[in-house]
Design a protein that fits this description.
With 224 residues, the protein is α/β, with parallel strands linked by helices. The chain contains eight helices and eight strands, in the order E-H-E-H-E-H-E-H-E-E-H-E-H-E-H-H. Strands 1-8-7-6-5-4-3-2 form an eight-stranded parallel beta sheet.
Length: 224
Amino acid sequence: MIEIVPSILSADFARLADDIARVERGGAKMLHLDVMDGHFVPNLTIGPPVVESVRKATKLHLDVHLMIENPERFVTAFVQAGANSVSVHYEATRHLDGVLGMIRKAGAMAGVVLNPATPVAVLEEVVEVADYVLLMSVNPGFGGQKLIPYVLQKVRRLAALRREKRLALPIEIDGGVHKENLAEVVRAGCDWIVTGSAIFHSADPEATLREMREIAVQAAGVVC
C-alpha cells in the first residue's frame, strides 16, 4: 500500500497539533519525524520529548528518522516516547545489525537509511534483517531541497533486490517529492513517500495531501 507520509519538519511548530489534525483529515496514516544532532547533519531539530508530545496528539504511525551519530544511545528512548518505526543511517553506526535488533527489541519497526551517494549494494547482507529501507533523495539536514534524480535508479535497484530475495520490504523515500514528480517516484518502486514542504507550505495541507494520495494511487495502478 502506498502511503504519503507528511514530515512535520515543515509544519508550524507553534500550531503543530492543528497541522497534524489537517493531514489526518487528508487521509494520512503516518507522520515522519526528523531527528538531527548538529553533527551527523548540519542542523538541530527534535528529541524524545517532542516525539512524546506528538504521540499524545495523534494515534497515527510515528516514523522517526534518526540523523544522528551513535544512534544506539537513543533508539530505545525514541521508541519509549512513542515511535512506531525508527530508522538509522548506515553511515552513522558501526554496528548496524545490533542497532536494528535494539529497535526491534524495544518494540518498533527497524529501518536502514542510505544517503544519496551510498550504493544500494551495501544492503546486500543486512536487507533481510531490516523492516524497511529509507533512501534519501536529498542530502540530509534541511527541508525544501530538490530531489536528486539518480536516487530513483537506486530505488529501482532496491526494488529488484527485494524481488530477488522475495521480501515484503517497504521502500521509503525522503526529500524533494512534490505533486509534479510523485508519479515517477511511485513507479520507481517507493511505498512510503515522505514529503514536507509540498504539504505543509501549501495553501490547504488537507486538500494537497488528498490530491497527492490520488496521484500516488493512480501511478501505482491500485484502488485506494
